[in-house]
Amino acid sequence: xxxxxxxxxxxxxxxxxxxxxxxxxxxxxxxxxxxxxxxxxxxxxxxxxxxxxxxxxxxxxxxxxxxxxxxxxxxxxxxxxxxxxxxxxxxxxxxxxxxxxxxxxxxxxxxxxxxxxxxxxxxxxxxxxxxxxxxxxxxxxxxxxxxxxxxxxxxxxxxxxxxxxxxxxxxxxxxxxxxxxxxxxxxxxxxxxxxxxxxxxxxxxxxxxxxxxxxxxxxxxxxxxxxxxxxxxxxxxxxxxxxxxxxxxxxxxxxxxxxxxxxxxxxxxxxxxxxxxxxxxxxxxxxxxxxxxxxxxxxxxxxxxxxxxxxxxxxxxxxxxxxxxxxxxxxxxxxxxxxxxxxxxxxxxxxxxxxxxxxxxxxxxxxxxxxxxxxxxxxxxxxxxxxxxxxxxxxxxxxxxxxxxxxxxxxxxxxxxxxxxxxxxxxxxxxxxxxxxxxxxxxxxxxxxxxxxxxxxxxxxxxxxxxxxxxxxxxxxxxxxxxxxxxxxxxxxxxxxxxxxxxxxxxxxxxxxxxxxxxxxxxxxxxxxxxxxxxxxxxxxxxxxxxxxxxxxxxxxxxxxxxxxxxxxxxxxxxxxxxxxxxxxxxxxxxxxxxxxxxxxxxxx
Length: 605
Ligand code: ADP
Description:
By secondary structure, the protein is of the alpha/beta class. It has 19 helices and 10 strands. Strand 7, helix 17 (524-538) and strand 8 (542-546) form a beta-alpha-beta unit.
């Protein structure tokens, strides 16, 4: 197979069609010549087979029944051999081409889906389960591949075999030809009847398989939570229940198939019997020659064969079509335009951010999550967000890189409305250090260099790691910066992960920073190191910090206290703590806890 083809660039959005067969046909763009060549090859092979029977008829009638042959026996023998070679050669060619077509289309489809998923907005991922996406990008794509490898070529094969052999039958004897297909309408009717049922059964089977994948995927991702809450048995039961449901649906699908086959075979057998009997009677009555009968006996098999396969393919077609729809549901989602924006900034932003009566409501929600948010962050300032879980802190910072679009008010970056900036630009200028940073199963070096697209030197990586207070830690790993992270490499502690994430953001060097402060989760020594690393990171950048502990935001330039999506208090620490309100309450609770904790520790010592 070629590694690249011009068809690779085909935009699969164009294959979206309410008519699934039309869509599948469009999806073949760039591969149609191959497919048509494959079908023609099949046609040549079929003609060769049919000619074999015609040659047999000639041979029997002119050598056995009468000695009227004008062609020598040797030539006839050569004819048989040549026909056999032609048939097998073209059958092979057709199979190869069909497989190439199918693999090529499937490969393009997989690449497209991956590319597409990368470009879908956050809202899509909020609403769709990972397991479901995996299922559609693997199992369903494979069903589409089988459609091209077996069914699409199979349809061509059936039409050709049927047309050629029917023409040959007509040539033998018109009446016999029509008698050979009397049952065809019944076979088609039965096939269509099963087509609908198999479609439904297969769709529900695929859905259940997706549910099972989701259960498995969530379980593996959340293995720590499962263990921490000792919920293994609950998870096992849930999996078994889903698996049982899949088994039942699989059984139903299988039942459809096992019902269809005997019915279809009986009908085909009946047709064969009718054909053989009529033919034999006609030969006895002298209406046809013995040679004709023998040829007929061979040819009728090749008329019944496509009929029988027609049923099989109609039924299997349903699986390809259902999977096509499932795949298309992803493809027809609108991508998030990364480079669109009515304002094209030429330089880095200064990082001056102003919120004016900003409101936000999630797409599927009725009540706003943020309301009337107004504040200003001057370049280099630190803005802290404090508030109970669900008060809207994460949502607020997610508006900055335009992960979501604010639904009311205005946000200005350097005086220009935020939604006029291209998303790509904003995301390049904003660094995010999450509470639980995600590292890829790649080397530490690759993880640090992840945010930059240009080549970076070892010195630059090391500088970032030093500022993030993780350089020494990395050197202590067996392969230093080339140590793999994750299952096949070292397991990093929460604090180490966070510092690698800080190094990654330092290297990216964004003007604006979003930090999810989680230093409360690490021990005091690491905390001091992380604090230093964070200081280095925040230096000269406009920083938004989602705070959980007042201690870490005492020096912030502006503290916003959120409650139910509104700013209920704002100001600096000294000011806020002197007034009654949520802030002082939290401060008092946290201080009391810490004092008690210290007392307890000193009493133990
Ligand atoms: P915080 O970060 O302060 O804990 P969030 O911003 O995460 O708060 O959540 C604020 C509110 O928005 C919560 O009620 C939460 O349930 C809701 N919410 C968060 N993410 C989504 C989402 N993707 N879709 C719908 N609602 C959401």
